[in-house]
């Protein structure tokens, strides 16, 4: 009887969270289609067809660049701000790690605002949305920045009341944007045999990539921990799991977000200094349509994969908690030696994960530079890896809710 009540309670909570998420996604989808004022959308559509890689890159942050709208910036400014903030916290020289939660949120939003202004201005100049009229320019920039902050609020509301946190919002926007970008691929006039062959080949490769991503995402190395308060058979089952790819596919999402910032910044610089050949060259080669741009992206991708590995598995914090509790890793001294021991494994697996992520999500883009007609298709492996990580986070949250309500009461009435 009580077991059924527990199951009903977990089902009720999950359905409530799903309802919240559905409502938030409906609001998000409406915002994606609210057009900005003073624009020639026929011209914008043509520009984005020519710069489809930018539109596809933006989709990884929930941005909608294929149809310039209220949420055109997506969560990109916030994601970039989180990366910058995490790096500042890791440095520890400026004591940002000692700030209160409220103070940290203030500085994070301040960085987000600065990046949002850069991206809105850069997008405005790059797409030539309006004639250079100061009032119209300010209205559009403020509208895009406001839309980005409203989307951040929506994502946070989903993190509190819904399923999957900010990831669900990004995943929904990404799927919607990719569908728009990939649709032209299936309109190419091919013979029936050619069409069937390439379609089957893409599906097989996609399934293999998903299988590899799932295996690597779930695979873990288990470091046995001796817990002094457990003196039975369960003592042999206590371990610290370290994922083989601790950075996960999130490095791709944040990498594309970070790549957009210099892209927009160089557009702004080029607008003020059009005679500078270096800035002109960068404006033409900073995107994913050049070897230089792809190389920058791969470097960002690999670096973030390694950084996320150390962030997700904090060796210093784990070793400190083990020391305080009296638990220890066998044949390893508590404190600094334990931290060094853990960091060795984190570094190894983060590097392996970064190599895998860079190989699958980054290297195919070099072929996209040569064969530009397939550049959109060659970005899909990265999006598949990212989607696997996102779906894993969502399913883990659902499993946690079910698990929390599966225990029987310690004291019955």
From TrEMBL:
Gene: secY2
Biological processes, Gene Ontology terms: intracellular protein transmembrane transport; protein targeting
Membrane topology value: Multi-pass membrane protein
Protein name per its UniProtKB record: Accessory Sec system protein translocase subunit SecY2
Stored Pfam families: SecY
Compartments (UniProt record): Cell membrane
Subunit structure comment from the entry: Component of the accessory SecA2/SecY2 protein translocase complex required to export cell wall proteins. May form heterotrimers with SecE and SecG subunits.
Free-text function comment from the UniProt entry: Part of the accessory SecA2/SecY2 system specifically required for export of possible cell wall proteins. The central subunit of a protein translocation channel.
UniProt keywords, alphabetically: Cell membrane, Membrane, Protein transport, Translocation, Transmembrane, Transmembrane helix, Transport
GO CC annotations, alphabetized: plasma membrane
SUPFAM superfamilies assigned: Preprotein translocase SecY subunit
Main location: membrane
Family named by the database record: Belongs to the SecY/SEC61-alpha family. SecY2 subfamily.
InterPro entries per the UniProt record, alphabetical: SecY/SEC61-alpha, SecY2, SecY_dom_sf
Transmembrane segment boundaries: 20-38, 68-88, 109-129, 135-155, 162-183, 195-216, 250-270, 290-313, 348-371, 377-395
């Amino acid at each position: 009887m009580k077991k059924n009540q527990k199951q009903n309670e977990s089902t009720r909570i999950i359905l409530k969270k799903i309802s919240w998420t559905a409502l938030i996604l409906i609001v998000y989808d409406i915002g994606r289609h609210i057009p900005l004022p003073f624009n020639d959308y026929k011209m914008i559509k043509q520009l984005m067809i020519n710069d489809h890689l930018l539109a596809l890159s933006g989709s990884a942050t929930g941005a909608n660049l294929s149809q310039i709208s209220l949420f055109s910036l997506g969560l990109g400014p916030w994601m970039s701000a989180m990366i910058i903030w995490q790096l500042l916290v890791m440095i520890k020289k400026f004591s940002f790690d000692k700030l209160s939660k409220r103070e940290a949120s203030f500085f994070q939003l301040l960085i987000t605002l600065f990046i949002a202004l850069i991206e809105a201005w850069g997008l405005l100049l790059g797409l030539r949305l309006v004639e250079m009229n100061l009032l119209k320019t300010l209205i559009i920039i403020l509208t895009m920045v406001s839309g980005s902050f409203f989307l951040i609020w929506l994502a946070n509301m989903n993190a509190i009341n819904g399923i999957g946190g900010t990831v669900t919002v990004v995943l929904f926007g990404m799927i919607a944007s990719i569908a728009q970008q990939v649709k032209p691929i299936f309109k190419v006039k091919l013979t029936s045999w050619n069409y069937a062959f390439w379609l089957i080949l893409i599906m097989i490769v996609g399934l293999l990539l998903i299988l590899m991503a799932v295996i690597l995402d779930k695979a873990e190395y288990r470091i046995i921990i001796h817990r002094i308060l457990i003196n039975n058979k369960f003592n042999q089952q206590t371990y610290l799991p370290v994922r083989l790819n601790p950075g996960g596919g999130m490095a791709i999402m944040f990498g594309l977000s970070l790549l957009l910032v210099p892209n927009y910044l160089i557009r702004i610089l080029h607008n003020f200094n059009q005679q500078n050949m270096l800035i002109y060259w960068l404006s033409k080669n900073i995107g994913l349509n050049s070897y230089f741009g792809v190389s920058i992206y791969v470097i960002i991708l690999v670096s973030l994969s390694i950084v996320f590995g150390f962030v997700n598995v904090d060796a210093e914090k784990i070793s400190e908690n083990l020391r305080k509790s009296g638990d220890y890793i066998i044949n390893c001294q508590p404190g600094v030696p334990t931290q060094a021991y853990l960091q060795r494994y984190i570094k190894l697996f983060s590097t392996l994960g970064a190599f895998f992520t860079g190989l699958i999500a980054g290297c195919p883009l070099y072929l996209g530079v040569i064969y530009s007609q397939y550049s959109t298709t060659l970005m899909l492996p990265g999006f598949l890896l990212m989607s696997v990580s996102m779906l894993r986070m969502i399913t883990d949250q659902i499993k946690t809710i079910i698990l929390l309500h599966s225990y029987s009461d310690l004291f019955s009435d």
